[in-house]
Specification:
Largest sheet of chain B: 7 strands, mixed
Number of helices of chain B: 0
Number of strands of chain A: 11
Distance between the termini of chain A: 39 Å
Largest interface: A-B, 24 and 24 residues
Distance between the termini of chain B: 36 Å
Shape of chain A: globular
Radius of gyration of chain A: 14 Å
Strand content of chain B: over 45%
Number of helices of chain A: 0
Helix content of chain A: under 10%
Oligomer: heterodimer
Chain lengths: 122, 107
């Protein structure tokens, strides 16, 4: 059974770069899209972007200038970097597998990490 | 971006009630619509994908319908564990967008 685990600093200073890693266990990172989603305190869900195991990416335009998602297939991990953070980037960050029927373009987040809280504060 | 609007934003209901939550997209998204359940402090869990397909392991009291721009999630007989927040999500095109959520509370 595939499991995801986010890791990284829980506190980041304003203007610095947020860096998180998602480790995939119980299955291979190959042949799937992998996504990052965040949720500010008390608010809804925001899709950040995804990466295919071959490295192809797609980002939310609202964050595109600051976001980089990368993959390390040898470690079964993918990562998120968000630069120039502000208090508005304070959120729970989730990594998720994009499951579904790829041939029919039916995608959904079928496996999620537990989430990690990142606070932006000096 | 495609805007997803859920109604109501909150809902009070009793165990055994039939509940319907609505999600409307700002344009047609065919059937590329998913529903998630989120409990406090937990990650979301997919219930319905492709508008009406029940995810494996999800109780059959959950059902989804709709296509185009209007969709519904129905819980046929509320159970105590169903009190949570529900989100719709479109995956018709990126950026994938979520509704604002519907909080289902115990009456």
């Amino acid at each position: 059974q595939v499991q995801l685990q986010e890791s990284g600093p829980g506190l980041v200073k304003p203007s610095e770069t947020l860096s998180l890693t998602c480790t995939v266990s119980g299955g291979s990172i190959s042949n799937y899209f992998w996504s990052w989603i965040r949720q500010p305190p008390g608010k809804g869900l925001e899709w950040i972007g995804y990466i295919y195991y071959n490295g192809n990416t797609n980002y939310n335009p609202s964050l595109k200038s600051r976001v980089t998602i990368s993959v390390d297939t040898s470690r079964n991990q993918f990562s998120l970097r968000l630069s120039s953070v502000t208090a508005a980037d304070t959120a729970v960050y989730y990594c998720a597998r994009v499951g579904g029927y790829y041939q029919l373009y039916y995608y959904y987040m079928d496996v999620w990490g537990k989430g990690t809280t990142v606070t932006v504060s000096s | 971006d495609i805007q997803m609007t859920q109604s109501p934003s909150s809902l009070s209901a009793s165990v055994g009630d039939r509940v319907t939550i609505t999600c409307r997209a700002s344009q047609s998204i065919n059937s590329y619509l998913n529903w998630y359940q989120q409990k406090p402090g937990k990650a979301p869990k997919v219930l319905i994908y492709a508008a009406s397909s029940l995810q494996s392991g999800v109780p059959s009291r959950f059902s989804g319908s709709g296509s185009g721009a209007d969709f519904t999630l129905t819980i046929s007989s509320l159970q105590p564990e169903d009190f949570a927040t529900y989100y719709c999500q479109q995956t018709y095109t990126t950026p994938y967008t979520f509704g604002q959520g519907t909080k289902l509370e115990i009456k």
